[in-house]
Amino acid sequence: MTMSSTNPASSTTAKQSVRAAPNRRLRDTFVLLGLFGLVLAGVIGLAAATGWEETRDQLMKLTLGQFAILLVLSLVNYVFRGLRWHIFARKLGLPTGLVQDLRHFLGGFAMSVTPGRVGELVRMRWLRRETGWSFERTAPLVLIDRASDLTAMALILGLALAFSTTGIAGGLPVTILALIAAFAATRPRLLAGFATMGHRLTGRFPRLWAKLRRAAGSLSAFTSPTLIAAAALIGVIGWIAEGYAFHLLLMWMGADIGFAKAVAIFVFSTLAGGLTGAPGGVGGAEAAMVALLALEGVPLETSLPATIIIRVTTLWFAIGIGFLIFPIAEKFSLRHHNGLENI
């Protein structure tokens, strides 16, 4: 293999991508700040309604050491899910290493606040630049990762509801819906059939439906029962860590509702927030969490700060990590992309 002269068109495209990246990053930052501002405005309104002193007193109960424990438990979730992403990438045949896969996975958190979290597909863009693999070849990686999260959260919710003394209205339907969605997202024939039906019904976008059929075919790499079970276990461990963090937080604030119920409320609220389609589940998850805690007899002056803290140490902590790693991942991907073009 010999090095050829640089293609002027490719060089121009690379330069345009480099110039466009800061603009996209600035736009995403404004979106993130806007969402955070809306959440903050709602929190301030509720805090004013309940009384600032009560909310402040509850927040002051949390020490820096306890806050650090919550962040560490969230890190456990991110690391375990990042390792699962690496396992899936290797199973798919991607020529990527552990550090590279973790960089992609964690960097994608910066896009968690996009509607439906579709912005996290930036991971596919990085993979395309660094490996040359097309979007339809890496799409199964995203599908299986999301399906594994749904499976793990559905299992946790079902078990938590079974062991809690009281149930959650809508808990069973949400559990079943999550399992169905996870099953559908990992069935090659089902997705291929959906693509064929979509093409026939619409009669449009033939290339898009063809790409979806090819992506569905690649899902066969993930049908091993052993792989599915291992992925579910990794996901359960990760999400249980964050659920346990919520349980600890409530105990520290003097609102011990039991481990099973705390985990059930945390997972249910996370899933409910995702079902709203709002960026990162912002708004929906918080409302569900406060409402469910109220049903357990937790006063608003306790449920509100508890909800604020757990969302900061889970969702917003993940976004913060993503924003730190995002420019690094973007830089590495462009470097690989330019190197591949020059070969």
Short description:
The protein is an all-alpha fold and 343 residues long. It contains 13 helices and no strands. It has a domain at 65-186 and 223-338.
Topology (SSEs and partners):
Layout: H1 8-50, H2 52-60, H3 64-92, H4 98-107, H5 122-131, H6 135-163, H7 171-185, H8 188-202, H9 206-218, H10 225-252, H11 259-275, H12 284-295, H13 300-341
Keywords: Cell membrane, Membrane, Transmembrane, Transmembrane helix
Subcellular location: Cell membrane
Transmembrane segments: 29-50, 62-80, 150-170, 219-240, 307-329
Protein model, in words:
This protein is mainly α. It has a domain at 65-186 and 223-338. The protein contains 13 helices and no strands. It has helices spanning 8-50, 52-60, 64-92, 98-107, 122-131, 135-163, 171-185, 188-202, 206-218, 225-252, 259-275, 284-295, 300-341. The protein is globular. Mean pLDDT is 78; it is low at 1-21. It is a multi-pass membrane protein. It holds the Pfam family LPG_synthase_TM. Residues 1-16 have a biased composition (Polar residues).
